[in-house]
């Protein structure tokens, strides 16, 4: 498979809207019309329960991880293609063509991508999210701090490839963009707790 084909596969994998599909199957409602209107795990948990939210989190992470694993297997060591595939999977989640390019915020998909390319950074980010969410009960704060910590770990600890470290920075910048509404509500002290 060519590098371009792998990137397209990553985008298509990322674009599968598990949150929308599973909530529609389980509850018969469009998750985009409930709660925050987001298709990601946090809103699914609000709308359809924590169990379904966890399932969407896992599936959204897998749709980032699996195409990156494939790219890493078929590309030579040191290739930047797996990082490009990871970015494409993230983009697919954020802008799926099936939903008019209006998708989720990409946190779980980014976690899946980094679990393959920068596992220590992914672990640090996941732990940060867990602690922050446990204390504050505000998912967006946990997500953004997790992205910042994962980026710092990827750049500071040896063993992360330059492409993977650069990808963490790009993903963090993209998550700041996808969370711009949350950031505005945080500044106004209007961000809801879960």
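^ Assign residues to that structure.
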């Amino acid at each position: 498979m060519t590098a371009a084909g792998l990137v397209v596969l990553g985008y298509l994998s990322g674009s599968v809207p598990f949150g929308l599909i599973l909530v529609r199957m389980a509850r018969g409602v469009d998750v985009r019309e409930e709660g925050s209107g987001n298709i990601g795990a946090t809103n699914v948990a609000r709308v359809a329960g924590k169990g379904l939210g966890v399932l969407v989190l896992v599936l959204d992470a897998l749709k980032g991880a699996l195409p990156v694993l494939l790219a890493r297997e078929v590309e030579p060591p040191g290739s930047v293609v797996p990082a490009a595939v990871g970015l494409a999977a993230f983009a697919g989640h954020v802008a799926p063509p099936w939903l008019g390019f209006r998708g989720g915020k990409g946190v779980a998909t980014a976690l899946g991508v980094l679990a393959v390319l920068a596992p220590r950074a992914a672990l640090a980010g996941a732990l940060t999210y867990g602690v922050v969410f446990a204390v504050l009960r505000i998912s967006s704060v946990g997500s953004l701090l997790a992205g910042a910590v994962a980026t710092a770990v990827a750049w500071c600890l040896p063993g992360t490839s330059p492409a993977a470290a650069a990808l963490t920075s790009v993903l963090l910048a993209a998550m700041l963009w996808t969370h711009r509404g949350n950031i505005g509500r945080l500044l106004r002290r209007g961000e809801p707790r879960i």
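The CA atoms of residues 120 and 157 lie 9 Å apart.
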